[in-house]
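User: My advisor, Dr. K., asked me to get a structural model of this assembly before our group meeting. I'm new to this, so sorry if the format is off. These are the inputs:
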Amino acid sequence: MDSRAPSTPERQPRTGRRGPWHRFARNPRALAGAALLAAFFGVALAAPRLAPYPADAPHLLATLHPPDRAYLLGTDNLGRDILSRVLAASRVTLAIGILSMLVSLVAGILIGALAGYAGGQVDAALMRLTDVVLAVPVFFLTVAFLALFGPSIPGLICIIGLTAWPPTARLVRAEVLALRHRDFVSAATAVGASGGRIIVRHLLPNVVAVIAISATLRVGLAILTEAGLSFLGLGVQPPAPSWGNIIADGRAYLGIAWWVSCFPGLCIFLAVMAFNLVGDGLRDAFDPRLVV
Amino acid sequence: MAAYALRRLAALVPLVFGVTAITFALLVLAPGDPVTFLIPPEQRGAADLAAMRHELGLDRPPPVQYVSMMRDLVTGRLRSFGDRRPTLARVGEALPVTLILTAASMALTLALAIPIALVAALRPYSLVDHGATLFSLLGISLPSFWFGLGLIYVFTEQLAWLPATGIRPTGATGYNPLVIAPYLLMPTIVQALSILPVMVRYARSSLLDQLAQEYVRVARSKGLRERTILRRHIARNALVPVVTVTALLVPFLLSGSVVVETTFALPGLGQLAVNAALARDYPIVLTTTAIAGVLVVAGNLAADIGYFYLDPRIRDG
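Assistant: The format is fine. Below is the predicted structure of the whole assembly, which you can bring to the meeting.
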């Protein structure tokens, strides 16, 4: 990751092993999370090849079929193969999780960097806004927004992203405040760099680690939010599969066909846990004192 | 303290008006005409729609509608578009369900989190501490509605021990604790588990901070019993951040109640708000939003009162 690291193997000094990536690699839980995450991304990329059936193909003679050799994870009430649907949903869910994380990241970085760099009344106003967004039960607003404007995937990404930025904004602001009066910033100001250039070229590169840690943990939260909304019927709309809406499909048949709701939920649980493990591992490796 | 509480309550006014104004703007901007949800399609003549619109006051400019609805809300005269009953009565039926669920989950969380955190903090990096960390990780990764369905599968479908839907048996009324407890047990566990990891983490680090303080060493060197040190010295100091987190988790629990109330078909505030938004019942949406704002401020106020009793420095300073 570090471009200045020596490229020839024999020049790698032993002390270099104590770097953050070494600490990350020595942490079994972080590695387990990274492996799980890699597996999820691999499976999502290969989903069309791995799926035994088309995700929305009804097998009308095999409705609510329990897991067996033909249908590894069983079928739902319309006879659709759960494994194929879970695989197709992995792409939808991971994409929404990552894209909404990016939206919240951009909003959080912009607001946090501006507040930290500008200071004064701009800072006070932006931080007040952050407090308000943190204090309001945002899920009510999210639900109202999606109920009113109708659920759509771009709408989901935006609303999840735009309600999740406050923690990132706070982190970035705190880091920028700590860096703002350092000599290299004064030097850049002295040679006439503009505020925007100082933020982008000098301040943001120094907060990349903090942002990456926060971003990893945010994806897990975004996946949980998307799943909850899809479970309520306000997220990804059928027939498009998402882990949350497959669970909702299986809810009415819980007593007779547990497998419909069980497996997609297990996927959400494992995927969110993978992001949390990696995020915690990054935090412990780069900045153990950080509270994200 | 009374003056302080009043000042905090005064801050409620701009918050409630801000949140309801944003919500109303969303309602007006959103596609979908409320009256089309009220008149069946076959009876929808243009005259009927216009008459209904006039009756509900929807033919006036949106700012006028907002002001008039908020005035009616404050005076208690605001009525639902759907069943024309006062919105406060509708919310009055739903609110106790959400409040009881929130209070019970908070109580269960604190009852579990403080002992877990205490054991983890007294023996850091022990098996119990690692167990608590692992448990926290599982807790924050678990989708609450899936966990709820799992409980329903085991305790309702398989064992038939607990009811899975509603707040009380059909025909019963009121909130007799013995009657509603079986209905609330699973939702409470689900809600508590969703906040337990956060609570344990804060309580543990707060206890660790206090354990490292000089006054603890002084108390130990005086020969005080460990139990006394914990109860008289550490507990009160360590509880201040716990109270803060408790207040911060109120909006989180309210958000979670939307999903949990759907999972267990509980007729609470979350259900009411979602259904009202879907049916474009403006008065109900505005009332539930306002009440949610009031609850959040009330949670913060309760935390302030908590500090006041826990920490003499805040009380006298």
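One thing worth pointing out at the meeting: Chain A touches chain B through 40 residues (CB under 8 Å).

User: Perfect, thanks a lot.
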